[in-house]
Amino acid sequence: MADDDQHVLEMVRLASLATPWAIRAAVTFALPDLIDAGHSSVEELARHTGTDADALGRVLRYLTGLGVFAQSGDGTYQVTPFGRVLRHDHGSGIHSWLDQSGFSGRIDQTYGRLIDSVRSGKPAYEPLFGLPAWDDLENQPELADSFNRMMASHTDVFAAAVATEYDWSAVRRVVDVGGGLGHLLAELLRRHPHLHGTLVDLPNTAAAGKPVLDSAEFQDRYEICGQSFFDPLPAGGDVYLLANIVHDWADHEAIAILRRCAEAASPHGKVLLVDRVIRDNDDHLRVAAADLHMLLTLGGKERSEAEFAALGTAAGLRLDEVQPLTRPPDLFLVRYGVSLPGGVPMTTPESPPAR
Question: Do 252 and 161 share a structural domain?
Fold first, then answer.
């Protein structure tokens, strides 16, 4: 009976909504940043955040119990090393995925519709907000900006690993497809001075990437192409790089994107994905959580190695290798070679998404 009681307590802990939402409140109100800046009493924090002091005090009490903050005898608060990862200037960029004032806030709201998505097999985003996620981002520049910054912070976590754990020595031109603000392409150009790169993304996003690439260090070594990756891509690249792109899409659209890469690549070109891979022989909880995220928000999915191979075959690509990255441990390099004549004819999705 004691074991059963422990199971009940652990299940209650896991099912509690207090923890994820209290942490998000801390990030949205920038509490770790404010406390580290010297605003350590409840009253000061309430004044700076425009919140009710009593309600905020309750949140702080709970977060102290979690070890995010510590409280002194005089009632003031300090940020613990554990809580410091929530600061807006922390290198992990985790705050951008928790701040409710941007696109991440919309993502989080979709989890309240998980039961509906399990029943329908469709994303919860459109029923909740009236538009598919990509259309919503296109219509709201501020929302799109928060999404781009969120993805850029994630890219910064793995960019160095991509630059060092793939052999770029024989590559002359890399095309970063759906490359966002250009953080990954900039890292590649910085570490490999022989490389030339093309950043491909929607016009507004691609234009926002110019400040990242516009430096004397990269002069005459890059170009920016504002377009959808469902349209024909710039031709002749040695490597077509797609980081966290394919998992955003269902199979039909994913094949269309990969097919565009296969069509554009040079005869001995490669297509390189940075993506999660479902594997049964490791701790896959993070990947499983990301898979739910794709279901709820975009209608995409995380895939197994066999599923990546099948996508490649349908797109005129040959899966050559799946290589784990050292950081973060749940991302892989999925390497394809081009075998276009064996692929199926190109089919563009009906009314292709703006992305």
Answer: yes
The number of folded domains in the chain is 2
Identify whether residues 155 and 290 lie together within a single domain: yes
In this structure, the answer to whether residues 169 and 32 fall within a common structural domain is no
Domain annotation covers residue 125? no
Which residue is catalytic, options 154, 183, 247, 293?
247
Structural domain including 42 reads: 2-90
Which long-range contacts does 112-117 make (Cβ < 8 Å, 24+ apart)? 113/296, 114/292, 114/296, 117/295, 117/296
Whether the link from the prior residue into 352 is cis, omega within 30° of 0, is no
- Regarding whether 166 and 303 lie in a shared domain, the answer is yes
- Nearest residue to 52 via CA among 79, 88, 25, 27: 25
- C-alpha neighbours within 13 Å on the C-beta side of residue 262: 27
pLDDT in tens, 264-310: 998 889 999 999 999 876 557 889 999 999 999 999 999 999 999 99
286: enclosing H helix or E strand: helix 285-297
252 catalytic? Reply is no
CATH number at residue 65: 1.10.10.10
Per DSSP, the residues of 96-145 read GGT-TTSHHHHHHHHGGGHHHHHHHSS-SHHHHHSS-HHHHHHH-HHHHH
What digits encode the pLDDT tens for the residues 114-128? 999 999 999 999 999
pLDDT tens-digit readout, 51-70: 999 999 999 999 999 999 99
Closest CA to 110 of 297, 290, 294: 297
